[in-house]
């Protein structure tokens, strides 16, 4: 197949911060002498006490420890707000676009300062101090940003839980980090539909307890239950406090936030990011990858419940004094032109979204795009999953009118910021490739034994050395951190992704190589969906795998063995889908449920997922070695009853 290459447009090479020569120079310097490189770039944020030590990292088995700028003192909210007040007090910091197209709001840096200080004072009056954990379960409204920055201002550690998660999922996350305070809204609003956030918080707290205060922001005005002594309306509490609140001095390695993410085993892990290195890395990648210049309007469509929202709606852009757009709604409400209309309405220059959204909108055809102008657009971005070349081409040709480079950014919750991506003025594009590593990032492709493979090759993606945005630990479980990321290939960070490197040194992410699936850019542990299924009284066993899905990237395929005597009915199938929705959240709903009287197991009783994956992928002729199965006839039944893709 002829590979398409899109060269860097000449005007881009000229106006961007870095062209190809400069990229090579900076990249080589960052690898040759990381200390010197980050010593220079760490000063892009303001420090109350400047650091002298730059990097103090060990990836050694059993003693992994990651510290950056450790003797520096700073505060993230100070960097995202206060330091801009003198020069940009009246500049818009946040453009908020509501679910309803008639609703929007502009918030200047000065207003942001006042709002965040008020929010911080409300929290402080409820006993929140440096190091305390605060769970934020919010819709995409400005108060979600105020709440996060208020925590950062006080030195409290926020744990944002995506508003689409169920009460049970929320409860597990509140309990794991022992949050005493939860911030929520009466209801969320997405695509015209209401989400009962406060009721979900009540249900979660009823399950785990331990929460002393619930701060409730009024969004829809719904009538919600308020528990006296525990629950308070934000607008009432905010009316009683001032808009002055000092920033807590934070050491570079003091925690900033926890974000729960799925792995291949067990319950979600609390990924912990700290203060200094995270902010340096988020702001630097935001500037260079998106080539952000003063005055640009930047829009990242993620939810603040995911790391993309943390790093590229909030922290990276605000640290850079940017104007960042926050969108409450969904791409197809009120119609399929919504994204493009928002771009025209707010004159967005840089637009960053997920392949799943692009594929869904592509299905709606060119017309909803073409009836908008999009003349303000200069750069497009993609994140969350591999982008197939067809979707890339459509994004480039139809959305960007062939004028805008696309940065396909590969990274993870764990990495804090983008690790592999084109820089638009420096790196020629190949549709489907995340291209080249960012400064300071040293990717390695290894085989199953951990041997480092050179040149054009394919294998498992590791990163050989630390970068400032790297997660520091799993909250409360450093052993799990080391076991998950540093034990497979000792001395390296293992990403869990497969990857190919071509002859030009370009990286092509091929997807997860562990039992994690990526559904519409949402990361899901198959083990989590399985444990939700077996919690149902009629289910005896379940195995979940991913399969290729036209819009979602991967769909969820569940093989379910029922308890003896239970009938495999259509009704039960629907009930199980609803059950998983309720247990985890709508994003975990199985797309296909196959009733399987038996699952393929080895003689020692281990489920052979490889075979289940192949069947789900329709690769019947390529099942591999089935001779180790305890009962090979199981496979014929599974193939015979395979569910069809929708
Ligand atoms: O498999 C990779 C995929 O998403 C995983 C990380 O998921 P999460 O922690 O939820 O973070 C998503 C947003 C940063 C990765 O291990 N992934 C992310 N970006 C890309 C990608 N796969 C291919 N190309 C990408 N650009």
Automatic annotation (TrEMBL):
InterPro entries, per database record: Ac_CoA_lig, ACAS_N, AMP-bd_C, AMP-bd_C_sf, AMP-binding_CS, AMP-dep_synth/lig_dom, ANL_N_sf
Record-annotated Acetyl-coenzyme A synthetase N-terminal domain positions: 23-80
UniProt binding sites for CoA: 190-193, 308, 332, 520, 581
Positions of ATP binding: 384-386, 408-413, 497, 512, 523
GO cellular component, one term: cytosol
SUPFAM superfamilies according to UniProt: Acetyl-CoA synthetase-like
Gene Ontology biological-process annotations: acetyl-CoA biosynthetic process from acetate
Catalytic reaction annotation: acetate + ATP + CoA = acetyl-CoA + AMP + diphosphate
EC number: 6.2.1.1
Post-translational modification N6-acetyllysine, affected residues: 606
Ranges where the AMP-dependent synthetase/ligase domain occurs: 82-466
Positions that bind Mg(2+): 534, 536, 539
UniProt keyword Metal-binding, yes or no: yes
Function: Catalyzes the conversion of acetate into acetyl-CoA (AcCoA), an essential intermediate at the junction of anabolic and catabolic pathways. AcsA undergoes a two-step reaction. In the first half reaction, AcsA combines acetate with ATP to form acetyl-adenylate (AcAMP) intermediate. In the second half reaction, it can then transfer the acetyl group from AcAMP to the sulfhydryl group of CoA, forming the product AcCoA.
HAMAP family: Ac_CoA_synth
Protein name, UniProt field: Acetyl-coenzyme A synthetase
Organism: Chelatococcus caeni
Gene name for this UniProt entry: acsA
């Amino acid at each position: 197949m002829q590979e398409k290459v899109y060269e860097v447009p000449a005007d881009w090479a000229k106006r961007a911060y870095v062209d190809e020569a400069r990229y090579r120079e900076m990249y080589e310097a960052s690898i040759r002498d990381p200390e010197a490189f980050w010593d220079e770039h760490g000063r892009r944020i303001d420090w109350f006490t400047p650091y002298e030590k730059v990097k103090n990292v060990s990836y050694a088995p059993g003693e992994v420890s990651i510290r950056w700028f450790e003797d520096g003192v700073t505060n993230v909210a100070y960097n995202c707000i206060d330091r801009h007040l003198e020069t940009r007090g009246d500049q818009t910091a946040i453009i908020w676009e509501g679910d309803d197209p008639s609703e929007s709001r502009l918030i200047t840096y000065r207003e942001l300062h006042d709002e965040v200080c008020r929010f911080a004072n409300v929290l402080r009056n409820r006993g929140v101090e440096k190091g305390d954990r605060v769970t934020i379960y919010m819709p995409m409204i400005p108060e979600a940003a105020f709440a996060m920055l208020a925590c950062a201002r006080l030195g409290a550690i926020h744990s944002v839980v995506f508003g689409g998660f169920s009460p049970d999922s929320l409860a597990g996350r509140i309990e794991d980090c022992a949050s005493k305070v939860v911030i929520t809204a009466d209801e969320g609003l997405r695509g015209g539909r209401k989400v009962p956030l406060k009721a979900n918080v009540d249900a979660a707290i009823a399950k785990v307890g331990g929460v002393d205060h619930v701060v409730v922001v009024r969004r829809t005005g719904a009538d919600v239950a308020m528990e006296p002594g525990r629950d308070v309306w934000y607008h009432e509490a905010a009316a009683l406090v001032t808009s002055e609140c000092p920033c807590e001095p934070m050491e570079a390695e003091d925690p900033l936030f926890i974000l729960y993410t799925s792995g291949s085993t067990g319950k979600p892990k609390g990924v912990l990011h700290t203060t200094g290195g995270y902010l340096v890395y988020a702001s630097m990648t935001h500037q260079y990858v998106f080539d952000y210049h003063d005055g640009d309007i930047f829009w990242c469509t993620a939810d603040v419940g995911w790391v993309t929202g943390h790093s590229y709606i909030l922290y990276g852009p605000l640290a850079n004094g940017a104007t960042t757009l926050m969108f409450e709604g969904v791409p197809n409400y009120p119609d399929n032109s919504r994204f493009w209309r928002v771009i025209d309405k707010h004159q967005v220059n840089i637009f960053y979204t997920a392949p799943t959204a692009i594929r869904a909108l592509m299905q709606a055809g060119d017309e909803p795009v073409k009836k908008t102008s999009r003349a303000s657009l200069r750069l497009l971005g993609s994140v969350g999953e591999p982008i197939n070349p067809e979707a890339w081409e459509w994004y480039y040709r139809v959305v960007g009118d062939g004028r805008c480079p696309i940065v396909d950014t590969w990274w993870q919750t764990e990495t804090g910021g983008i690790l592999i991506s084109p820089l638009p003025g420096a790196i020629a594009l190949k549709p489907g490739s995340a291209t080249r590593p960012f400064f300071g990032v040293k990717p390695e492709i290894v085989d199953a034994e951990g041997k480092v493979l050179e040149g054009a090759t394919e294998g498992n993606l590791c990163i050989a050395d630390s970068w400032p945005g790297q997660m520091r630990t799993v909250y409360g479980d450093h052993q799990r951190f080391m076991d998950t990321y540093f034990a497979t290939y000792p001395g390296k960070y293992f990403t869990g992704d497969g990857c190919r490197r071509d002859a030009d040194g370009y990286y092509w992410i091929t997807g997860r190589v562990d039992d994690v699936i990526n559904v519409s850019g949402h990361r899901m542990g198959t083990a989590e969906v399985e444990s939700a299924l077996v919690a149902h009284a009629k289910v005896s066993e379940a195995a979940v795998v991913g399969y290729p899905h036209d819009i979602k990237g991967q769909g969820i395929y569940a093989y379910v063995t029922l308890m003896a005597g239970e009938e495999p009915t259509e009704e039960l199938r629907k009930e199980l889908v609803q059950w998983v929705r309720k247990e985890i959240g709508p994003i975990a709903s199985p797309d296909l449920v196959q009733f399987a009287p038996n699952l393929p197991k080895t003689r020692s009783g281990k489920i052979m997922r490889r075979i289940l994956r192949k069947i789900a992928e329709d690769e019947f002729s390529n099942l591999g070695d089935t001779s180790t199965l305890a009962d090979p006839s199981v496979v014929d039944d599974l193939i015979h009853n395979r569910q069809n893709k929708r």
